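Human:
Class, as today's exercise, you are to examine the entry below, and be ready to discuss the fold:
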Amino acid sequence: QVQLVESGGCLVQPGGSLRLSCTASGIIFSITAPGWYRQAPGKERELVATISIWGNTNYADSVKGRFTISRDNAKNTVYLQMNSLKPEDTAVYYCNDYGYWGQGTPVTVSS
């Protein structure tokens, strides 16, 4: 069956960096368009970034210039490099691919 496993979330200070990973199994990853989403406490889940089959990327305005989504088809993995983190980036980050969701990885930005 399809499985998405996120990792890399943790506590980080404002201005810091993190890289999240999401590894997929059970799908032909190279022909999918995965994305990262996040859900902050008390808020709805929102789109963070997506990447197409050809590597075209799309970002939420709030993360443009700070976050970078990338993919490694050989590893069935999509990454989210997060730089210049702000407290408002605190959320559980989820990977979505082919309509499936991972379990999420928590990111807390706090001093």
